[in-house]
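Let us begin with a simple case.
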Amino acid sequence: MGDLFAPQHLILILLIVLLMFGGKKIPELMRGLGKGIREFKDAKDNVKREIEEHANEDHSSTPKSNS
């Protein structure tokens, strides 16, 4: 089996999208896709930052033993 997305597959997908939505709607679709990707990355970064903050709080609040 070859690659999942060979160049021929991508061309076929692009032609289908062009036929379904028309040339005028494609830029709008791409803007929406870009916005969705940005929002996903922002949410991912926020979750990562919150996890790191909580890990730092837990680490700093743990009492140290006097051995």
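The second case is a distinct protein. As before, the sequence precedes its structure tokens.
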Amino acid sequence: MRPLLYKPCQQPPAPSPAPPQGPRRGQVAVFLLLILTALVFVLLWNVDVHRIITTKTRAQNAGDAAALAAARWQGIGLNLVGELNLLHALALSANNATAVDAITNVQARVLFTAPLMGLAAAQVAAKNNGMYAEDDFTQIMQQHAQEVRQYGTLIGGVPLFEQPYPTAWVDYADMLDALVADGIAAGPDNSAFYGDSTGGHILRDRAFYEAVAGKTWCWFYLNNMDLLQNYTDYHWWPPLPPPTPQVPYNAEFLSLQIHPVSLALNQIITNDTTLVTEAVREGIDMSDFIASNVMTRTETWYVYNGEAWGAWSQIDTSGDDPFPLTGPVRPEYNYTGADAMFRVYATVDRLTPGLDGSSSNSDSVVWTAAAKVFGAVGPETARRPPSSYGLVLPAFSAVRLIPVDACSGASNGSFDMDWRRHIDEHLTAYLSFGPQNNGCWYCQQLTTWEPSGGSRTFQNEGLTWLGANSYQCTITSGGGGGGSRGGGRRRGH
């Protein structure tokens, strides 16, 4: 009989885990989908940020290059006029009347050709830095070229604007048309058109709209308290003044801010050795000039416009509202005068929707830059601003970028399309019918400003704040009620 064999007891196999239920499996899938969506969104957002930064950098480079190129041509024009002044004196000392006539004729032309060469150079610089022609800019320039062709139209036997030299308006319009043919990529923002309607009224001052938008009550306190105290409705405004025609010695774009005068030279510059000294710098031999009687002869000389070539007060580092510079401007460079400001637009196509909920997948990038030509006259040990002698002399040697707020005509906004439409189209309708609901930002500020149902809520809010805080409007660090005491001040680009 065989022995019994015993097998150890075996535990039954453990049951397999139950497969996940359908709803739980769906939650995991949804969670993974959400994570994947977020990752994709972050990736697209990073791409958009990179595009925006790249486009902004490109716009900045284009605007800066355009302003520098234009200002450089302003310097070339000023130096050329100055050299021709010296040659004029030299031709007089040699009794060469033919040369004198030719020189003054060329000077009149330089005041137009040099700025327009600067305008053309600015377009090349902007395009070389990735900017494309802007349709609105091109259209403005095209329309203006047509207007220039009408400048010689006779009204009561008198031309609309006297020509500074024969064929001036035809030449001027032809140059603008040549620019239009290639497209305008950078708009000259501090242009001053002869028949322009800007200025002369609070509604043509952008600082007013910016003060309303930011509730900058100090701006009203310092500039026009009557607005807060006595405004009733849109009928309260005085009518817009008519345009003030300008004397057309300078081009409307990139003006050199100089003009001809008929005077004896000793009425402009008292020391004849000054001319000789400045001529030596340019390699012009005027050794026979002092012995001549040129200083007492009445002639046409090109001089600085004293109103335009004053102290550079916009960039003063002292006073109640000092400009935030690390130090004062050197005395020989402390002057206004010829400068250039340009605006460029660029478009960024986004992959993600905008934060404002709009369906548009593109954004606009705007960059405005300003540049100025610098130079000095006088001995090396006592250099002075170039306008010190009154007579234009070849003194300009450097071009630098400057803050937009320090540029002359910075408030013109000649090529700020929204501002231009508001000035040219919307103000007339507002003064006749009241605030307009047309999407214009400036019109929206007028809606905010306008009393509703006779209630002066906005104005009373400002008066209440100033009643308790007007002392803050005398210091530069004042807080509340809109911050900066000046209101609407652009310190940089």
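The chain is about 40% helix and 10% strand. The first helix runs from residue 22 to 93.
Keep these points in mind for the review questions at the end of the chapter.
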